[in-house]
């Protein structure tokens, strides 16, 4: 039922979640702990969130009956992934209470829209150009220099739909399936020294809180490790939080926004990408902060006061992909006492599929990185100092 008043939704109320992946599962677990009822809409009968929710509607997102059920039963609805059909979110916003709104999703799921909005708000981003054909690509490469990164504007994740290109010829393949009127984005290659991110929360009332900025290390385009707090100058930590707040205000965010940034050699920050939901780089908050990103998101959309995002302990989060499950099981007894294991209940182990994560807690992130390296679960060691190991090497 469409909510009329701005009264908070108290425990006992029902939270509807579009999408039943690991983010939905962790939202559901936190929601249950807080005393809410959880309703998931996801077409897969054995999705990770289904097994912990009170109710799982197994149906396509387009299913009218499923939408009606959600509208009738949920006091508030949220989404846990941004590749969901925008029309469905728009309709649910009209017919029910979906405080994040479709507009935030419309901007953040489209790289070009996102860059435009950020640039208009004087938020620093990588230089970019719109590319519709080979001529645009030639002009773009002249303007931005080489190499450059060509990306699809929607649908890309974990490095899919991205090409590092040096010549227009290299971009031809990427442009082959571009239909009339479609567009790609070409970004100048950024020789960053670190990739960092900030998860920021904004309540319905406009109150804003940030979690500590973290440092992210990717392997094969997938997040491998998050180090909290990021090993950067204190001034950079502050500036990263300020930037994240500025972006959240600019976009009138309700709920969480993950702001990914590049740190340059001269200590400047550029905003790379936004996600209007809990983020993999915020999983450490579950074990290391006073309030987790999942609880914070639920507080935002339910109209409760925001919790304190204080970091209680330095933390290192490492993802468990399909190929890590066997070595993890073998080395499980070797995990230190302060390591917290999270598995998402996914049955099929595939290479590169996110199956879970481990959060290490301790006094020194460098010591925790050594522990991770010594466990022999994740193969290739993570270098200790200054990483700069972006997924593209020019
Ligand atoms: P994205 O999907 O935009 O987050 O990109 C995935 C990864 O590609 C980032 O985490 C970076 O490691 C790398 N990347 C993306 N854009 C650029 C860029 N303009 N310059 C250098 N590396 C980039």
From TrEMBL:
EC number: 6.3.4.18
Key words, A-Z: ATP-binding, Ligase, Nucleotide-binding, Purine biosynthesis
Domain ATP-grasp: 115-302
Gene Ontology biological process: 'de novo' IMP biosynthetic process
Residue sites binding ATP per the record: 111, 151, 156-162, 187-190, 195, 218, 272-273
GO cellular component: cytosol
Catalyzed reactions: 5-amino-1-(5-phospho-beta-D-ribosyl)imidazole + hydrogencarbonate + ATP = 5-carboxyamino-1-(5-phospho-D-ribosyl)imidazole + ADP + phosphate + 2 H(+)
InterPro entries per UniProt: ATP-grasp, ATP-grasp_carboxylate-amine, ATP_grasp_subdomain_1, PreATP-grasp_dom_sf, PurK, PurK_C, PurT/PurK_preATP-grasp, Rudment_hybrid_motif
Keyword presence, Zinc-finger: no
Gene Ontology terms for molecular function: 5-(carboxyamino)imidazole ribonucleotide synthase activity; ATP binding; metal ion binding; phosphoribosylaminoimidazole carboxylase activity
EC top class, as a word: ligase
Membrane-spanning segments: none
Pfam families assigned to the protein according to its UniProt record, in alphabetical order: ATP-grasp, PurK_C, RS_preATP-grasp-like
Keyword Protein biosynthesis assigned: no
Highest taxon listed in the record's lineage: Bacteria
UniProt pathway: Purine metabolism; IMP biosynthesis via de novo pathway; 5-amino-1-(5-phospho-D-ribosyl)imidazole-4-carboxylate from 5-amino-1-(5-phospho-D-ribosyl)imidazole (N5-CAIR route): step 1/2
Assembly notes: Homodimer.
PANTHER family associated with the record: PHOSPHORIBOSYLAMINOIMIDAZOLE CARBOXYLASE, PURINE BIOSYNTHESIS PROTEIN 6/7, PUR6/7
Function: Catalyzes the ATP-dependent conversion of 5-aminoimidazole ribonucleotide (AIR) and HCO(3)- to N5-carboxyaminoimidazole ribonucleotide (N5-CAIR).
Sequence similarity: Belongs to the PurK/PurT family.
Protein name in UniProt: N5-carboxyaminoimidazole ribonucleotide synthase
Gene this protein is translated from: purK
